[in-house]
Amino acid sequence: MIQRIAVMVVIVFGILMPCAGATAEDAPAPDDLLTLAKGAVLVSAAADPLRALALTDGDPESNWNASTKKVPLPHVFVFELIAPATITEAGIIGAGDRPGGVAGGSAGNVLIEGSAEGPDAGFATLATLDAAPNGETLAPSAISTPVRWLRYTINGAQSADASWLYFNEAVAHGTTAPPSDPDRFTGVFQSGRVDFIELKQDGAALTGCYIENSGRSTGTLSGSVNEGVALLNWTSEQGIQGNAFMTIDSTGALAGVRYRQRSRNAWGGPPAPEGTTTPCSDIQPVNPIVAALQEAGEVQIYGILFNHDSDVPKASSRAALEQLREALASDTSLDVTIEGHTDSDGDDAYNLDLSQRRAASVVSWLTDAGIEATRMQPAGRGESEPVASNNTADGKALNRRVEVVRR
């Protein structure tokens, strides 16, 4: 259920034309700009900032909560958007009538403010609302100029005597442009006292490495940048693998999360002191697709992107497609299956068909680029092999991918 305060807007979407026997994907809902998948980061939280990461995961079921006795009201949260944005409406997702067994514990009155100056100054009222305990409650924005920071002040719960306060998600709809900084992610970042992440960006492609466990273990990174957000694969020296989501905030810090076996943990940090090096500092980046196929026999590629309900690669996919072409051209012994994967939105059968068409489209592009068609087999996997939870916005983005598997 979505509650909208004072204004109701009806939007008519274009008609989708599915193939015979399948049901088209549902028309996409407006993007929530306050998700890590859209490059938003949590700047500060009233308490328990690690748990407050749930407020930007795009999952309407996960929540932040705190004792109203131990953490006095109001509860204040500050979020930073990936770039200045014109907000059309904002609000929260309630935690339910009895979150955690606490009747009336879902957030009630909320003040939302926006600033173009910084996380500590220049805030003006964007919206106020009395949130429903269930579903989204949204209010239209009173600010027509772009803002970069949003401050949410939770003034109370549904019930004045609730001993705990909960809410599931901060939400903001509007329009923004992704950062245009070249080599936005290139640098060394300090993720712990003696732990570091180094990234090297070449167009949309990313490679790098990391040091963790107080410098006792290392791993490699590869991935791509899409609209200012990095989607990465990481592999430890022990062969353990996972995914990560990263953005760069206004201070130049690397901010994101790492997935490992469905767990989601904060990962990143500020720029490292000048002169800091890592095991990959003096190593020229190699094509990560070649390395992955030779060492592991498979690779996840996030830079091959498609519009909603389309099997035609976006123009921004060219860098990743060229990287895949170079990998296959450099080793003619590589025969591969090119798999299309979707998130769980939409009908299962349609997603399976769409993923098959997208995989075939990649094979067609590579064939036109000079790779023998007999070396490649397209395969649609639909939503059957997720690498992250489909309950979150960033998890869905990680599940929408192309995989290449050596045959």
Q: Care to describe what's here?
A:
The protein is mostly beta strands and 407 residues long. It contains five helices and 22 strands. Strands 1, 2, 4, 5, 6, 7, 8 and 10 form an eight-stranded mixed β-sheet that branches. The protein is globular and about 70 Å long. Residues 4-25 have low confidence and may be disordered.
Total strands: 22
By helix and strand content, what is the structural category?
A: mainly beta
Order of helices and strands: EEHEEEEEEEEEEEEEEEEHEHEHEHE
Report how far apart the termini are: 47 Å
What's the CATH first level of the largest domain? Mainly Beta
- What integer is the average pLDDT? 89
Radius of gyration: 22 Å
**CATH homologous superfamily classification of the largest domain:** Galactose-binding domain-like
How many structural domains does the protein architecture include?
3
CATH architecture of the largest domain: Sandwich
Major beta sheet summary: 8 strands, mixed
Can you tell me the CATH topology of the largest domain? Jelly Rolls
Report low-confidence residues grouped into runs of 5 or more: 4-25
What is the molecular shape? globular
Q: Helix amount, in percent?
A: 10-25%
The total of helices stands at 5
Strand content: 35-45%
